[in-house]
Amino acid sequence: MTTTSNGGARRLRSIQGLRGVAVLLVVLYHVGAPIGAGFIGVDVFFVISGFVITRLVLSRSASTMRLSLRDFWAGRVRRLAPALGVAILLTLLLSVPFASPVGVQGDTGVTGIASVAWLANIVLATLTLGYFADSAVQNPLLHMWSLAVEEQFYIAFPLIVVAVLWWVRRRGKANRIRPFAIVVAIVTALSFLASVALTYSNLPLGVGPTLAFYSPVTRAWEFGAGALVAMLPALVAARRAQWLAAVGAALLVVSLVVIDDPTIFPGYIAFFPVIGSALICYAANSSGERVLSSEPMVWLGDRSYGWYLFHWPLIVLASDFLTAAGAALIALGIAHLSLRYVEDPIRHRRRWSKLSAPKLWLLTSVPVVGASVLLMVASSNHWWNQSVETYAKSVSRGVHPIQTLCQSATPLTERKMSECTFGPADDGEPMILIGDSNGGMYADMAARAAKKVGRQITIATIPSCQVADLAIARPKVRLTFAVDCHSRYKDTLKWLSTQPKSTVIVASGSSIPDLDDYILVDEKSRVYEDGADKERAWASSLERSYKAIEAEGHTVVPVELIPQWSDPDGTSWSPKDCQLIDVLRDRTDCESHRSRTTMDKEQRHTLAAMSEAAAAVGATSIEVRDLLCAGEECGTSKDGVGLYSDSAHLTPAGADLVMSRFVELMSHPPR
Fold it and tell me: Of the chain's two ends, which shows fewer C-beta atoms within 10 Å, N or C?
């Protein structure tokens, strides 16, 4: 994403124009423009960096067969660090009033420190578990991952160059290009294979695709493609070079259309934008390209680094008073000022010319680290404000020692379930709580209810896994979960077959039949997409599950689905969307309220399916919606007390609100 100085290599205007295309793709994608996979702009940047840096190091080492690592890295610091420091400081400043004190500010501070340490990709991989995850977009420094990958390339690549030059000098070779090209080709091929393997791997929690996306190892082949092109001689005539550029541009356009699943990217599909960019770079090296060399494109390319730095923080943090497009345009203006007053003067040594690179890095990094720590400390202490502390505690999932102990991805048949059995052993029928994290959120409350009435209960919940034999999917998107839910479903039934006759409480939080962007798939790969079709399929699946449980002598008691704050289009309420300024001004701005009629209508297919399945086996359900909604109004809070920690999970206070129904069930089981 950076513009290389011309120290030793002539500047190609068309490459600057290609930078303009790359940043435009990214920005248009982030503002929600209908351009398809605009995120491939980052891949274009990676190819450009490999191309430009290779030309630079080859030019500098042409006469001496040596490369000064100190000079190279100093040049990178002078080019990258000043604008990066300014951008992060501005983001941290804006995050004080306009980011949520519940998690987001702390994550922003951590990412800020990682960004100046050139480790943002590693930290973000841990924080987000995926660039395209819903929670990731709340981080205003999310885009720093790609800069970290580039910076890691700038550390590793010249080391390869120095090693090859040393070998060439030792062997007395005159041609340094061939061995260098062989090494780069090998690294590029291995990196591509690693990228494909990890992208399509089935590691838990989507670790494979996450590593493939964020890791410099799996992205190195994109830089390598640019590097290899830079080493090719300019053998193509100008007219043919224009054709190559046209083919490259066509591949970029095709990429925007055919890459429709970001969850399996980069993978082999990244081959299209990478090769397209490489062809354009080669054409530029041969003759240049008239459209990309035009003044508007070069102007935009010159400001691409700054625009990339500033656009995402403004889009995220100014969303309450600026449209995404408006924020992006303001960011372009800031990028222009950054180029004129920060980047060019320092890079060309018109300012701070006597400041060494290490001191310059410290000058730009120490304030960022200090500001990041202050933001993290203030956020963790709720800004020493009672309103902020009250809000943070009201939406917290709190401490759930029983859920923490007993909700596990480990199969039930492999667990020591005695550790998750609570209450006195008596002559009454024991109880078992199964389900996903929506069942787990009741665990501590259910254990207290059992103790209160003198009953025994075993907690046996599995995160992300409903008690059903249908798979949850999204069209053209591969979902990744911590466990194989279908195998856990079978294991749960097997474990239940070994238990004494019990009252089995089934609590799951899936509202898939009412979510437009999710589908259901059965064992025969039959797909259910329409709401009514999903309702029937879900009802049948639940009925089969309930019958299978009752066939083992148990009594099934389903728990009614809680009102959930997810819209059919996939958007949802989250306390992390609540800005600090909103909490200080009026905490009710952070709450969401809807009528009971609206909530029931939005989840009608799921509620109908659960009701139909329960009726089919004559099961008595635990009704909770009337307790969570005050009369005809449902809310994420009630009488100032937070009921939800996110769109689909209750806080301890929310779970306690329905405790009376669990006590009633345990006192009078439905036998």
Answer: C
pLDDT digits (tens, 9 = 90+) for 445-476: 999 999 999 999 999 999 988 999 988 877 66
In the chain, what is the greatest distance between 2 CA atoms, to the nearest angstrom?
A: 91
Q: Cβ(262)–Cβ(132) under 8 Å?
A: yes
Sign of CA dihedral 458, 463, 466, 467: negative
Q: Which parts of the chain have pLDDT scores under 70?
A: 1-11, 63, 174, 204-206, 234-239, 286-289, 427, 475-483, 567-570, 587, 671
| Helix or strand holding residue 644 (H, E) | strand 644-646
Decide if 60 contacts 8 (C-beta within 8 A): yes
459, 446 in Cβ contact below 8 A? yes
Give the residue carrying structure tokens 């303001």.
330
Burial (Cβ within 10 Å: 0-12, 13-18, ≥19) of residue 484: middle
Reference 475, options 540, 520, 509; nearest CA is: 520
288-341 confidence digits (pLDDT tens): 567 888 999 999 999 999 999 999 999 999 998 999 999 999 999 999 999 999
Run of H or E residues at 570 = none
Residue 428 CA: distances (Å) to CA of 83, 153, 496 = 70, 66, 18
pTM to 2 decimals?
A: 0.89
Q: Helix, strand or coil for residue 663?
A: helix
Question: Is 650 in a helix, a strand, or coil?
Answer: strand
Q: Looking up tokens 């099934």, which residue turns up?
A: 556
Q: Are 145 and 157 in contact (CB under 8 A)?
A: no
Report the amino acid identity of residue 230.
A
Query: CA 443 → CA 37, 461, 506, distances in Å?
Result: 42, 9, 12
Q: Which of 641, 653, 622 is nearest to 556 (CA)?
A: 622
Residue 70: half-sphere exposure toward Cβ, Cα within 13 Å: 2
- What is d(CA 129, CA 215) in angstroms, rounded to the nearest whole number? 13
> Which conformational region is residue 410 in: left (phi greater than 0), alpha (psi within -120 to 50 degrees), or beta?
beta
As a whole number of angstroms, the distance between CA 498 and CA 360 comes to 68
Instruction: Please say whether the beta carbons of 147 and 138 come within 8 A.
Output: no
The answer to whether 213 and 266 are in contact (CB under 8 A) is yes
Q: Which DSSP string corresponds to 337-355?
A: HHIIIIIHHHHTTSSSTTS
